[in-house]
Amino acid sequence: MRHDPLPACCGDDGKQPRTGLSRRRLLRGTVSAGGALAVGGVIGLPGTARAAPAIYNPFAGYPITGSWQEHLNRGSLGGIDFAMGVGTDLPACGAGTIQNIPNNGTGGHTVTIQHADGYRSQYLHLSQFLVANGTAVGAGAIVGRSGGAAGAPGSGSSTGPHVHWHMINPSGVRINPLTYVNQNPGGGGLPKTSTEQDGVPGTIFYKRMQNWLRITSGYAGPIDGAPGVRTYAALQLAMRGYGYTGPIDGVPGANTWTAVQRLASGWGYTGPIDGVMGPNSWRGFARFLNQDRWN
Fold first, then answer.
1. What is the C-alpha separation between 191 and 225, in angstroms, rounded?
2. DSSP category for residue 85
3. Which of 63, 138, 212, 260 fits a 20 to 30 Å CA distance from 206?
């Protein structure tokens, strides 16, 4: 099988790009004042004149096993539980600075992402910290691994594998992150890619592709717009539904791109299914990726 040159490469496997697209530098967040623990108060999103930090839901592909209201009903200050296996990579929901809190009471190992303007996000019941305190990370950077197995180190009071996610506003009130994302759509999702118009894939196009693959096909790398082996392996897996029968090796060739063209044919692409990606192939693929559900 012929392996075509990758349209862009290789941010998630540490290699240098083969084309002009370089690894994007991680956005730096402003360190907020105050500690990492939430305090009690009215649950909600009090108004603020400050710009909302860009937050997205990195766990959209996992089932919710504990809703916000269910947490409140059992006396918690609130949170959302997403079921996932122990050791699952946890992407940052937005840019910020890391603070790790080992053995944080019932929450066990807790990572805090301190966003700009005082907002914070916390993931609880981790099995492993991956980023040092004080490190600035961008949205999608892997900041830890999930835990939650009953009695395991770092699980706190958890009785089964999952990650617990909540946010804290600048007033110190714990808030529902899904409500926050829904109320801040401009900053809470990825922008649309202009590839739909110009037929030229770029950083935003590949971020949207990575987020689609994260939601549907097990991609667990960064949402950095610099695709590498893990991104393309997830793409090949996704293309099984469009007739791809080759290896899941992260090295896309004609068979991979033929399957992508089949997908694009449902989104306005009318050219040949020949595995040679051109502007019209990219436009059709971009129309698919620009769906709101991949934001």
1. 12
2. -
3. 63
Kindly report the CA angle at 187 between 182 and 188, in degrees rounded to 5?
A: 40
For residue 88, give the DSSP letter.
Answer: -
User: Which one, of 131, 52, 133, 150, lies nearest residue 90 by Cα?
Assistant: 131
Residues 6+ apart with CB under 8 A from 35: none
Tokens representing 150 are 């009953």
Look at residues 150, 114, 126, 151 and name the one whose alpha carbon lies nearest to residue 37.
114
Q: How many other CB atoms sit within 10 Å of the CB of residue 285? A: 27
Rounded mean pLDDT of 236-256? 96
- Return left, alpha or beta for 196; rule: phi > 0 is left, psi -120 to 50 is alpha, else beta: alpha
Cα 204 from Cα 191, distance rounded (Å): 7
Contact 124, 156 (CB under 8 A): yes
Tokens of 125: 């019941």
Euclidean distance between CA atoms 283 and 153, whole angstroms: 48
pTM: 0.55
- 257 residue type, one letter: W
Q: What are the beta bridge partners of residue 124?
A: 164
What is the residue whose two structure tokens read 């956005």? 27
In this structure, are residues 281 and 260 in contact, taking their beta carbons and an 8 Å threshold?
yes
Helix-then-strand count for the chain, H and E: 7, 11
In the β-sheet with 126-129, what is the strand arrangement from edge to edge?
Answer: 89-91, 142-146, 126-129
Confidence of residue 288 (pLDDT cuts 50, 70, 90): very high
- What is the rounded CA–CA span in Å between residue 221 and residue 173? 31
Q: What are phi and psi of 105, to 5 degrees?
A: 60, -135
Nearest by Cα to 167 from 68, 74, 83, 72: 68
The confidence score (pLDDT) of residue 52 equals 63
